[in-house]
Amino acid sequence: MDFLSAAGQYLKIAADSFSSTVSNIGVRGRDVMTSYRIQPAQLMDPEEARWLHRDNLYAARHIEEIVEDGLRHGWSVTGCDERALHRVYRQLRLKKKLRRAAMLGRRDGDAYLWIVTNTMAQDEPMRLDQGVELVNVVVVERDACSIESWDTDIASATYGDACTFRVTPNQSGRQMRVHASRVCHFYGRDLLSQTDRMANQGNDSVLHNSRAQLMRWDVLEQSLGHLVNELKIGVLETSGTGHKADDVNAIASEAARYKRIAAFKSLLNMIILGPNEKFHQVSPSLSGVREVIEPLAWGLSAALRQPLVKVFGVPPAGLSSDDESATKSWDERVGSYQDTLLTPALERVHEVLFAAWNVPVTAAEGWEVRWTGREYANDAPQGTPPAPAVADTAFNGAQVASMVEVVLRYRAGELPRDRAAAILARAFQISPEVAAGMLGIDAVPL
Predict the structure, then answer these.
(1) Domain limits of the chain?
(2) Taking the complete model, does pTM exceed 0.85, yes or no?
């Protein structure tokens, strides 16, 4: 067997251990032969998720940013004494626990807020109509909680969801059965299939799908770091190195020579040149770096489902990243996260707070949780500041010119009063009173 045949046979046998960081060729790489091969559904390794969250800045922002933005402005509850309610929040440290449970749910796939009441029957449904004694609200990580049973009643609104859990509240190893009505669930990447959720005992980390893109960006940053370190490359021109490849003594002599040069360069910052030797530095070209960075930056933004300013913390120079559509899309995503995960948890906690006899807070019938800064279709809650006047609203030059044109056309008699007021109010999102004031008339009902 010749050398090429032997090498080919070896590579065929050892193919499972072969990989290339440049091309990603290999059994575990994303090349055309293996990228779309069907793999068994597996959750992300918990230790890998924790490592990424701890050591990778962009993974941490992916987990934390939407939770921070969702909770940043707080919430209010209509029909109750807000001051007394905030005292209860501080006693329970509710805001901190809500934030932690939401982030753990995104990182680990599942996390829970356990509403602990003074009863031995934690595995029974919570009966709020009979009154309860609230003890505490506890964050339970996925490692300390396992699903014991699922709701299999097809007529139930919670069909397919977890029914009871086994919770290990401390390091003692003692487990407690807890009913789902006493638990608020926070999850990451929702496994839509009930079969997958039951097989994996829950959901997956939000880092699962973005892991490959995070690794690519990490490799890019490391490569750029090496490139910066080598912006100045020293070149030593010498003669007399034309020895044969199997001349061991010549190779050793040459190696010792370069070792001495490196030692003097390190200690004394100088280079000793011999006869017929020249030393100079060259700078590699950085052309094409932006063309590499830009698509990877957009790919990272798409994988994390965040605008670039949220991914990097600042608007990246040279990239037209944060237009109105990206900001609006992010705000809508934060609002969806609030409605899907945060609001149901807060509503359940407040149901227990208002039903607990040892919590000195009550609420009127029809109370609801509202997020500060969000617009709602029905009437605004009490205490919401009025809509800003036109002086508080920023318009660009074209909008100002259009507004002036409408006013001038009204003054010239080209637009009727009602029509001019309606254009100002609806086109520029200002109140009818402000529009009427700009025209110098009484308010006109639209």
Answers:
(1) 1-39, 83-207, 232-283, 390-439
(2) no
